[in-house]
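User: Watch each token:
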Amino acid sequence: MSSGDAEKARDKTTQTTTDVDPANALESRPSVSSSSSNSKLQKRNKSLTKSPSVLERATSMFKKEQEKPISRVFSISSDRETNAPLKFKSNSISTSKYNVVTFLPKGLYEQFRRVANLYFLSVATISCFESISPIKPYTMWVPLTFIITLSMTKEAVEDYKRHKQDNEQNRTPIERFNGECMENKEWRDLVCGDVVRVVRDAFFPCDLIMIGSSNEERTCYVETKNLDGETNLKLKRSVDMGDGVKVISNAKLANLCRNSQRDDVMANAEDHLSGNLCTVECEHPNNSLYTFSGNLELKPPFVSEKKKIAVTPTNVLLRGSQLRNTEYVYGIVIYTGHDSKVMMNASETPSKRSHVEKQMDYVVLGMLILLLSMSTISAIYCSWWVKNESPKHWYLDTANSDEPFDVNKTDIVGVFAFFTSYVLYGYLIPISLYVSLEFVKVFQAMVLLNRDRKMYHEETDTPMSARTSNLNEELGMVHTVLSDKTGTLTCNAMEFFKLSVNGVSYGEGITEIEHALIKRQGGNPPARSSKAIEPSFNFIDSRLTDGQWRTSPDREQLRSFFRILAVCQTVIPEGERTPEQVVYQAESPDELAFVVAAKRFGFFFNNRTSTTVEVLEQSVNKSEKDSVRTYEVLNLLEFNSTRKRMSVVVRSKDDNKIILMTKGADSVIYERLAVGNKGGNAAKESTQQHIDDYAACGLRTLCLAQREISSSEYEAWNKKFIKASQAMKKRDEELDAVAELIEKDLELVGATAIEDKLQMGVPRCIEQLMRAGIAVWVLTGDKQDTAINIGSACSLITPQMSLKVINVEELVKLESEGEISKEEMKTQGLEAVSKQIDDGLEIAKQCAEVDAEMGLVIDGRSLSFALSAELKDNFLKLGTSCAAVICCRVSPLQKALVTKLVKDSGKITLAIGDGANDVGMIQAAHIGVGISGQEGMQAVMASDFAFAQFRFLERLLLLHGRYSYKRIARMVCYFFYKNLAFGLTIFIYNLHAAASGQVIYNDWLMSSFNIFFVCYPVIILGLFDQDVRPDSSLKHPELYSETQWNKNFNKKSQAVWALNAIWVAIVTYWSIMKAVHSGEADHEDGHVFGLWEVGTTMYTSLVFTLNLQIGLFINYWTWIHHLTIWGSFALWWILNVVLSHTDVYYSTYSYKIFTESTVLTPKYWLGFWAVTFLCLLPYIIASSLKRLFKPSLYELVQNEESLERGACKQCLGVTTEVDGGAGGQKFKKRATSSKSHDDSMTSNDSYSDVSVVGTTTPRRQGTLRKNISIPGSATSQRTTPLGSMEILPDVSAFPQPGTPTRLPPRTPPKQ
């Protein structure tokens, strides 16, 4: 780009990115002494300040939108005013949600976005009008203010912490070049174009282009764990500014910034406008952490002649990362503040809401509709009564009443009655539901989940992490688990295991997959070593080890093979540079395995600079000494999921040959091999057979290839490469296209095979999930044979399973050979996949008829057809009919598309993965789970829940998910039940009082209903209830089906609770009004029960009924349950006593009512107990009959548990063996046995044995017995102290090794 072009680009950028007139910016500066400079600037200002018309301005604005530049251009300068017209964002950040001005309005807006809060605000507002409201305003405003204040206080505390953190970051000191030397500034003072120096262990203040460091190689090490969670150090390089700029000094920086000898600001502005300053051209700010396109244009006197240098991601230092093992670096500021990549990634993850929460919104809406309907009925009835009945009651004198009861204005009477009822019936909506639910969910996530020691991974010191509390109950409703393989089911700790060179396979021993398959088939596999020879290396073959490869007839090919392993990589060596003590920092475990293997074979990679790689190579002849060979890295063609290969172009300094070295998937390497059988290509068929054999053993394979390039060919290609590397638009596509030009006519060198072992406990976990009725889909990039064998080894596929394989291998082969075109491939492929899916549906139908399981395997090419609009419905139908699905050779995009397809079917999906390629899948699913493994923390950062091992998924779903769903579903049902029962008594009495708005309860007592009297027991239910023991949840995974199909919060369940509430309201009202309130004198002074005594008795009955109701379906009694239930009764009486002795102005109708009248009357004490019993009687009868004649699964397990403990002890409420004492020894013994079983699973044999299941029956079996005698409903409750919750390590140990694994045949769940 010429200087004129650069000036045009800068002018264009200025005009399109700012609203500031450059002329105005220049006019505010001092004038320049030089007349030529003045005349030039005056001409420019004159042209810029020309006044445009309105039409011209509109046209200009439209053009600016249409002609937005593809890049941003700014100057490198120590003068802050140089780039000021560009209006880039400052480096000060703010992550807070509120400030002093916006907190109140924005906070209130957030609170009243909830429908329930908005409703209560309207009620509180209406209560201010005494002519309408039947209650005192403060009795509505106090509880509403309390709830809103509580929520906003929480918001304020959290936001204050954010403000504090932001202020600390913005005031962090940094060294900035001021034109002469480095000076101390704060982060917030930095602007684009500044040059800064960052010292060791400091964080980078913004995004920088690295231009120098303390190392001679001009490199540095960076830790990026704050960005992507990866703890391994990454090597960053300075931009290559030429041999003339090796050391950065103040003088050099002064020339770079052009400010040391020219202090006149206007002169500097002239340089900026005329294009004499060094500039940076880069892409606009974006959130991609791993890509960057930019150019650095250097000009004299900083360099001898003008040059443009491409800036790559390896030259960029990102804000949030930390400088390590390097004394200091210099960098040019490119993105500041909220434009930096880490801040662009700081947007909140899209909010996910659980199925129960969505249903709850509909219930709230239904309650609002009911409330409006009741208010309308009351309004109509009141209007009719005032018009037709009130004249009969002469003492009311309605003829002379005001508007609320004016007999001549019945329409106005109806309106008043409507709003009066609207306020009065507000207790149908539980005001404390959302606050209580949020508290319960946070407790479940932060305490019960995060502190579960059984999901703590000691080896990596990784606890369970619930990153959101919104989806706790969703964990209990999962139908489909979609899982990655590498790093999720496997350890992602690669071990070099086998290799093939020149048609000869090397490497002894069997893999873990082979070992498991032989045992499953009843064979006796040979013993295999549980430890690698060296981390990442487990290769055994005397033909190659200890230098014996030099005696092979293929030693030249073997040397090329080992050389590619040592050179074609991006690993960083650290520590002592000896084979025994060197430490390699690799971006992937595969590369680490290759470099370690090369070292073991005698090709020791010991040093790397910015442009060279040094390898200590073993000589071919044993008599010769080992030699150090240096390879100049000319170009690096990086690996990505599209290319599926990596290449380096190197020049050997020994013979000056230029060699292209490539490694990648066999499918892409074989496409680029030279025609004919020259060199290693003669063995390509036998090598392909070895690759297939390795894949069948569950090994990961790669091909190695190379070719020598002439100098002329390289020079011509390198010009294209440089042009592509400097492209500002679609740089990655340009580089891929250029790479295709040189990655051709390759010579096959060999193939590698790496073993990635299964994680401990994976077979058991998958077996348990499938017994629970959860379908498991594995989405992997492996070959078909590899995926099938791994599926068999981890219990996903069983020998008895009908397996349908869908692929289009024949068509792919015909296409690669050129026999069919791409269009024909598309048509024929669609037809072939459609036919195979139809065949699969027939098989699925047959399997359903005989109650057998079916599995499906589909490759990536076939999957692309199956996901098309024509076939996706049938494919989904087939997939959801299968117990197991394996999708192999899939891309990250296909993973997300498959997940979205299953999610759109309405079934709750859970996606689990460990790498960046799993992020799309994790975010697409209802629930995302991240594995913190070897591939960084991208998956964890995008997930809802995270832990270290796949086996923890069993506990997360079958225990915590099931518990959370049952607790929250029962809690929400109870909230609506109690409010409906309470609200209906008010409604019935209001109709009894001609819908006049007369209340039967005290205002304060009504306001306290949701906050004090019936709130705490239900919260404790949501926190601690357990219908069965934790170990029983894992022992009987079929229990999960009850929560999976939403049986506790479906329409039937909601209707049953609504009918129960109606029964309670009717029985309470009529029993109290007709039986207790008889009208005769109640004691010797002649006092009778009045309105408020009757209301107090009715309220007491409701408090006892509702609290004892929750006691009836509590399964797990602790001292906290007793405290809250009996404490609620005590609190009711205490508050009545207080109101009875409080001034009448504040206590209103309760003054002297309770202590002076109600408690002195015997029928009060006899009445509410009788009414309570009558209200609870239907529930007691129905639940007992159901338990006797049609028990649910969890009731069967409760009976089994009661038999194990002894029914007599359970009925008497004696504590179980988990409490200690004599029984405690028994529990400890069992826990110890379970622990030893856990420990035994660490060996390969132990957890491989777990996969040997289901060899005699078509479906997975368990231990649940349905012919257990039912001791009675009392045995459904367990009395256990609070300390024995599932957060303790001993409660839910794995079943003992001798535990049988049979259960009744698992039938397909009902849709």
Remarks:
- Residues 1-51, 259-274, 1207-1311 have pLDDT under 50 and may be disordered.
- Residues 1259 and 1305 are 6 Å apart (CA to CA).
- DSSP finds 46 helices and 35 strands in the chain.
- The longest strand covers residues 627-637.
